[in-house]
Amino acid sequence: MKLKIYLFTLLLFGLLQAQAQKVTVSGFLKEEGSNESLLGVMVYTQDKPYGAITNDFGFYSITLPIGEYTFIYDYVGYNSKTFQLNLLKDTVLSVFLQSNSNQLAVATVNVTRNKASENVQMSTVDIPIKQIKDIPALFGEKDVLKVIQLMPGVQSGSEGQSGLYVRGGGPDQNLIILDGATVYNAQHLFGFFSLFNGDALRSVELIKGGFPARYGGRLSSVIDMNMKDGNKDHLTGEMGIGIISSRGVIEGPLAKGKGSFIVSGRRTYIDALTQPIILATNNGSTAGYYFYDLNAKLNYKLSDKDHIYLSGYFGRDKFYSSTKNSDNSKFKANFGWGNATTTFRWNHVLNNKMFVNTSAIYSTYDLLIAADEIDHDTTAFGLRYGSGIQDFSLKQDYDWYASTRHKIKFGFLATHHSFTPNATVVIGGFNDSTVKSTTSFKGVETGVYIEDEIKIGLKLTTLLGARLSTFSVGKTNYVKPEPRISAAYKLQKNLSAKASFANMNQYIHLLSNSGIGLPTDLWVPATEKVKPQSSWQAATGIARDFDSLNFTLTVEGYYKVMSNIIGYKEGASFLSVADAFNGGSSKVTWEDNVTNGNGKSYGTEVLFQRKTGKLTGWVGYTLSWTKLQFDSLNFGKEFYAKYDRRHDVSVVAQYKIKKNMTLSATWVYGTGNAITLPLSTYQLSHFQTFASYFNYWQSGTEYSERNAFRMKAYNRADIGLQITKQKKHGEQTWEFSVYNAYNQKNPFYYYAASEDNNDPSSKTVLKQISLFPILPSISWNYKFK
To answer: What is the pLDDT of residues 156-184, one digit of tens each?
Structure first.
């Protein structure tokens, strides 16, 4: 017995002694010259047994035995730094990395923040902002979501649209986050542009599968974006003038370098250019459209362990028209929608192994449609229709660098939702009175999570996660566990096999008439009648790095099952003015107008890309199937989703012609969308009495099975040329680009009409409407320092 006690005491002493002989190196990684935090920097010892990656705020921590080490700090687009350290105690080491302008100019999409074969996370794409600015775009407007559409597994909706369909999911199944705040409608100009101004962004990350447990609330993807902090060393800025809009950004230090600010704005001037023409040709009638964005961020360093941030986004689209009639009466219409977000963050370093971020978040989206008929300065009839969603959230996240083999994240999120799917006001009308009808819901969504990245031996790394989500609306409560797991096994030095499984739940739905993400789509909560959406996704693949050639190859296969996805019943509509006239007494609600069903999506994705060199870019290919089944649609039979796309190809290339000149090009190809077409028309005797005196006939249409017809395949090439010239106080860039360079007539939609427009009796044929022909554009940009 005494021997056992002795051996146990000796073992305990040895463990304590080993622990006592370990030290921790921690600190922050920042950009030299601006003090901007650098996320995703690799920090490792020369022989690589110990390492870490900086978090979203540039913090890292490594625990290792006492001894002498060579530390390497490595990040794409920056010069690496090396430090020789003799570690005898805990050490704080913050490092500044210098931007390598030559390397940055040719760096392209870095598919993972470190080497693809060394990262346990799969189905992830990180997109440097430089890449977004270099790719040619519609009207020269640089667009984050357009670049994401060029990635395998991601499809666009229609010609020019910014909507995202990720691995078979709809646009409402993408969680879009800006500085921790959810953005509900990420589109301008009815979906042709996104609202994210690349000048204000620091990082963009897309996750398509194997979701870490810290994310929840959506089924298909997470797009996590962070705004720049602002230059802490000196005042700098940038401005640009394009075909349809101008933009500008200014940033600089506050309180002698303890803080910084950044303000970025963009506005279109389509209305200013077209309004004089409309007024001159339409006898006093006018119409216009514009959108604007405003990003702002402040940050301040309270101490070496405390940092606070305040950031916000404000944007709006507005269409307006006014028509003057011959009797001096007027008709006015306004159609607008907008987003606003505000995030307050407090970073605190609890100790050299634990970092905590606390966030208070506000987010709102609203839509307003207004129409007025004015007779002699008095409103004879008016209509106001509004909808929206408003969130207040509290979030706390912990990064615990427990050891060299365990990196643990845990935290919680609580969100109070306010939904207003329908708020209608009718002024005047049949009874010359004002009637109102409003539908609103309150809901609370919470999530608690933990995830642990575990290194097992030298070859296996796992990411184990669990999330418990809840949702309460009225007397209805949902509680859903969500297990997550990812694993990577090193087959060779630069070759890994990966696998992941994730269960997701979504408690809010998007009701869409059009399917292309128009702002008239409505956000509504899960209720007792309408259940939450849920999914599970399994994926497997390989990642191979070819260091000597700067190539990376990733191949992934996935299978996803979705349940309780919803859509409108046949003939249902989002707007019921009749209900307002009835004082909101109608018993038919949006819950009665929707139906629920199931879906599945599966496929294979290939991405072959080159990160550095004079010629850079990638080739992406997706082979996929997406099928849906609703009991009340298509006679209950399974059908292909509208945006099911069998083959999807994207080729992106950038060539550094010389130091100040870059040529870029993209080419895309995709199988046509699946649509429903009319097969024939006929007439029905709707009502017939005394046939010789009264006879009324109604036309009818016979349709094919749902989405049984394929549109013509889509393909397009874009070309861009950037010419940069150094000036005395900054840098000037001219960009020339051509959208749809070979003028491909891609289908936007089809309609049935007479073959000969002058002969209505000729046979009925299918005709195609194309949207964008070849479109050249030019823009000018100036960056001052």
So the answer is: 766 766 678 999 998 889 999 999 999 99
**CB contact at 8 A, 428 and 435:** no
Structure tokens at 785: 């320092």
Q: Which amino acid is at 721?
A: L
Distance CA 109, CA 101 (A): 16
Q: How far is CA 335 from CA 20, 162, 429, in A?
A: 67, 20, 20
DSSP state for residue 599 in the 8-state scheme: E
Q: Which two structure tokens, joined as six digits, stand for 123?
A: 């189905």
- Bridge-based pairing of strands 22-31 and 91-92 is parallel
- Token readout for 534 is 């849920």
Pull the structure tokens for residue 119: 């990262």
Give CA–CA dist 317/536, Å, rounded: 36
Taking the C-alpha atoms of residue 551 and residue 58, their distance in angstroms, rounded to an integer, is: 27
**H/E segment holding residue 20:** helix 2-20
pTM above 0.90, yes or no: no
Read off the pLDDT of residues 499-528 as tens digits, 9 standing for 90 and up: 999 999 999 988 876 444 445 667 889 998
**Cα 627 to Cα 631: distance, rounded to the nearest angstrom:** 14
The CA distance from 675 to 709, in Å, is 5
- Nearest CA to 603 out of 623, 628, 626 is that of 623
Closest CA to 623 of 650, 649, 652: 649
Cβ atoms of 242 and 779 closer than 8 Å? yes
Structure tokens that stand for 777 in this block: 């554009």
pLDDT in tens, 611-623: 777 888 899 999 9
Q: How far is CA 354 from CA 20, 24, 214, 412, 728, in A?
A: 18, 11, 17, 16, 46
Distance CA 331, CA 329 (A): 7
The whole-angstrom separation of Cα 100 and Cα 658 is: 16
Amino acid letter at 432?
D
Torsion over CA: 690, 692, 693, 695 (sign): positive
Q: Give the E-state strand segments of 457-593 in sequence order.
A: 460-473, 476-492, 495-506, 508-511, 522-525, 533-546, 551-568
